[in-house]
Amino acid sequence: MGIGAWSGLRRSWQYQKPMHWMTLAVLVGSFSVLIVAIIIYQNLNNILTHWGSEVKVNIYLQEEASEKDTLAIEKYLQGINFFSHIQYLSKKAAAEKFKQRVGQYVPGLLADLESDNPLPASFVMGVNGGIVTQGQYDRLVSVVNDIKKISSVDDVSYGQGWIENYATVIRIFSTTSAAFLLVLLAGTIFVIGSSIRYSIEQRRSEIEILELCGATRRTIIWPFVFEGLVTGVLSTWAALFITYSIYLWQSEVVASRLAFWNIKAQLVFLSPLSIALVVLLGSAIGGMGAYIWARDISTGWAAAEATNTL
Predict the structure, then answer these.
(1) Pick the CATH number of 56-158 from 3.40.50.2300, 1.10.10.10, 3.40.50.970, 3.30.70.3040
(2) I need a labelling partner for 245 at 20 to 30 A (CA). Which of 150, 262, 304, 309 fits?
(3) Whole-model pTM?
């Protein structure tokens, strides 16, 4: 004899609709926040990876750098096997490139470049594999510091400002999100547990009969754990639907307002594997919250209390 899992779930919803709808609403909101945080973290990493793959390093030479110095630097850069597409730009080539980019906006400046060219000769190159990980960034900084020690090198630029700031944002967001999500998950377990506790109180008479008839621990606990599992799965699927709708809306907003950054191509929703893991997490949290509150009901407490009241 036992409380059927599905029949117990139906009765629970039949007699406790307001409680269950309120629980679902809270859980959907909680899981939506969790999914949004995962999506933001994932897409921030994607954007950083995309920008990191396009990092350009510029080595500006001193005015008095000779052809021999230039050849020595080029040989050194090729030898360390860290840079790709190494290109040398002479002062004249740098001026021509500058004219092509901004000549139409400041035509008066072009005449000045003809007579007095302040642009230095330089090397322009990419980084093998881009800057995706912290280790690659650390090595870039180390290599750049070594290059700066060369006497004929005036300065080295690789967009260090935005890379450092962006990496800092990622680290801070990761740390704060992890702490916030732990608190959120703990609250989610408590909400599910409270709902299950209410279900237990409503079905106390059935539990008393099962205990008096010698039902096993698994027979008594399983329907409540099952209810928690179903509640967790339903709330995660509802949260996934809501967050996907928000993702579609926001990706269009980003595409229209930040088109020049080419960010939309890097924005993605959760992968099928991630979706499966989120649903699995939701069911695990639901089952765990239910078990925490239901684990003591098969120790004879309900029957004992009923006997004591006789």
Answers:
(1) 3.30.70.3040
(2) 262
(3) 0.62
